[in-house]
Amino acid sequence: MRYRHSSLTLLVMITLLFTVLSYGVDPPVKLWERQYYAAYDGAKFSDIELTNSGMLFLTGSAYDFTYPFNDNFVAYLLNLDGDVIWEVMHPFYRAFSSDGCVLSDGSFAITGKCLENTNSSVGLYLEKISPDGTIMWSKIYDYPDTKEEGYGITCLPDGGFAVCGKVNGTGQWAGDAWFLRTDSQGDTLWTRTWGTFIENYGKSVVFNNGEICFLAKGGDDTLTTQGTHLLFYDLDGNYLRGTDYGDVLEYLLPADMCIASDGGYTFTTKYFPPVWHTDQYGETLWWQSIYVTPNDWHKGYCIRRTMDSGYIFSGWDGYYEYEPDGNLTDYEEGWLARFDSEGNELWNINNTISVNHAFYSVVQLPEGGYMACGAYNVWKSMNGNDDQWTHSPLEDMDGVSRGSTGFLVRYAPETGITSPDSDSSLSVEVFPNPFSSVLSVSFNLPESGEASVLIYDLSGRLVGTVADEVFPAGENTVQWTVPGSVSSGCYLLRYNAGLEPGVKTVVLIK
After folding, report:
1. What torsion, rounded to 10 degrees, do the Cα atoms 280, 282, 284, 290 define?
2. 261, 404: one domain
3. I need a surface site. Which of 84, 95, 302, 486 has the fewest CB within 10 A?
4. Element counts in the chain: helices (H) and strands (E)
5. Domain contains 42
6. Considering its fold, how many domains does the chain have in total?
7. β 72-78/188-194 pair status
8. pLDDT confidence of 390, banded at 50, 70, 90?
9. 444 three-state secondary structure
């Protein structure tokens, strides 16, 4: 999508109003980059999740022409060297997976869009996959003669799912935001639509503080701007509240969000992306821009919390230039940026290669460093006109033309980032670490008061509550017995006792 000049001027002015603080942290070094197009055409990796066993779960799409055209791969398990462990071929037609999540028992769930058959309309689909890559069940949610798409998914405490996306045909002409809750088998418990007069959709969803929070685009009678909002529902589907961020986010469409270490939310937008942080009610606490060269084109796609309570962001940072023949050519480069817990920028890099590409998702690895995934783009705008496009195929090593290709890039740990533990936070000791079945957590309170110790996986999902109650002054020790459904891996222990919260990394080895 190309901005018109009036919109670009407005958004550049907004960007220049942001405050950017930079620090002397060395950016990470790229270790390797792998491309995945040997058997595919039209491949794209849209989301990457780290499993508790240290594998990589990726979603997206890829056609394999050794199979009939309507067969396509939508999920992949890779090791940290990028080797494919298994691929999942979707049983439906023209499927594309937008988002995935790793469940506590080691299985997986994905959502996206597909056709049930060549004569059906596009429907939102939900699929559960076993740890060995077998499809356990697939569901399609499709109103007749409408178009539904799934963009975000999260697992709920009862083993069910909350999904967000878009539905066309049942509400406004441009589409309504569509929110869906299912049980553990994918059967619908409730659906909700939201929005009016303009294009509306849900882009990302998390469960936090006993509420389902959706990052959505659109507006209704109470949230009148057309940009990014946070919407809150309870588990029964009752609308609790929504947040309106005014003109600043009017045209900056939602991209992704994560749960922050303080129990609030941090999100980014698709265009001219900021890092925007709120409390648990969605009220703004701070926001920072992500630095780019003035007048560059750039987009945001993903933001994740890091183990030191900071954030890692991915997208593409592009530029344009006139060729000798007078045509305007766009160039896009995978883009990563790193922030501390207050939104201060630590480093900002581009993945420079010879063709257009984007980083659609990124995760931090338990041993440090990062893994980013995306796709090489093969459609390029000509003369700055959205209506004029040309196909620019890639070629594999055999010289065979292919479409876009999925790719994976691994970065080494950066240097210069300090530990998240703070003297101002509650003093906590964990032992043993690594642990196998029982984790002991000791903390010292200066006076009687409430204290909480919670366990999260690396995707930000609550795995267990160690403590959440009133404790006496002095030394206290609590224990967490690991449920049988929780698998080996790296977890984050978040603690709070009325001061600044802190985070420790703990490792479970069964």
Report:
1. 100
2. yes
3. 84
4. 1, 39
5. no
6. 3
7. unpaired
8. very low
9. strand
The answer to whether the CB of 214 falls within 8 A of the CB of 205 is yes
pLDDT in tens, 175-193: 899 999 999 999 999 999 9
Tell me, yes or no, if the pTM score tops 0.85: no
Closest by alpha carbon to 210, among 146, 142, 280? 280
Mark whether 334 and 261 lie in a shared domain.
Answer: yes
Q: Which of 369, 385, 420 is the last residue of a domain?
A: 420
> Does 322 fall in a domain?
yes
Cis peptide before 254 (omega within 30 of 0): no
State both tokens at 300.
């945001």
Query: 506 — phi, psi (to 5°)?
Result: -125, 150
DSSP 194-256: E--SS--EEEEEEEETTEEEEEEE---SS--SSSEEEEEE-TT--EEEEEE-GGGGSS--EEE
Same domain, 273 and 303: yes
Last residue of a domain, one of 386, 420, 454: 420
Residue 133: Cβ within 10 Å count: 15
Range of the domain at 108: 73-251
- The secondary structure of 396-443 as a DSSP string is -TTS-EE---EEEEEEPPPBSPPPS--TTBPPEEEESSSBSSEEEEEE
Q: What is the CATH number of the domain that holds 247?
A: 2.120.10.10
CATH of residue 371 = 2.40.128
Write out pLDDT tens, residues 288-336: 988 776 656 789 999 999 888 899 999 988 776 666 777 766 677 889 9
Average pLDDT, the chain: 81
CB burial of 151-165 (b: ≥16 within 10 Å; e: otherwise) equals: bbbbbbeeebbbbbb
Structural domain includes residue 67 = no
Distance CA 112, CA 71 (A): 15
Q: Are residues 331 and 225 part of one domain?
A: no
Half-sphere exposure of 151 (CA within 13 A, CB side): 25
Q: Please indicate, yes or no, whether residues 267 and 383 belong to a single structural domain of this protein.
A: yes
